[in-house]
Design brief:
The protein is mainly β and about 120 residues long. About 0% of the residues lie in helices and about 55% in strands.
């Protein structure tokens, strides 16, 4: 079983920065992708950024140029660097790891979520 623990959230002023971390434990043989999602009150959970096993990154248009997703395989950790934060970035942020190369073997693992609040 894969366990994901997120950290780094908090309260920040508009224009500020935060770095979220997601540390994985357990047996992980293969990872298709790792992504960050967020969910604001009253809204659906949305994909923020993802990184594939090959290192390709994808960002939702609203954060492109401000957020950067990265990973450290040795530390089994994925990061989300968030710069130029806006109030609309306020949400609970979740990391997700998708394992298994074959479609039939794929599973999604989610972190517990970390609150990011952007407010003056």
């Amino acid at each position: 079983q894969v366990q994901l623990v997120e950290s780094g959230g908090g309260l920040v002023q508009p224009g500020g920065s935060l770095r979220l971390s997601c540390a994985a434990s357990g047996i992980i043989n293969s990872i298709n992708l790792t992504g960050w999602y967020r969910q604001a009150p009253g809204k659906e959970r949305e994909l923020v950024a993802l990184i594939t096993s090959g290192g390709t990154t994808v960002y939702v248009p609203s954060v492109k140029g401000r957020f950067t997703i990265s990973r450290d395989n040795a530390k089994r950790t994925v990061y989300l660097q968030m710069n130029s934060l806006k109030p609309e970035d306020t949400a609970v942020y979740y990391c997700k790891v998708q394992t298994g190369l074959a479609v039939a073997q794929r599973r999604d693992y989610w972190g517990q979520g970390t609150q990011v609040t952007v407010s003056s």
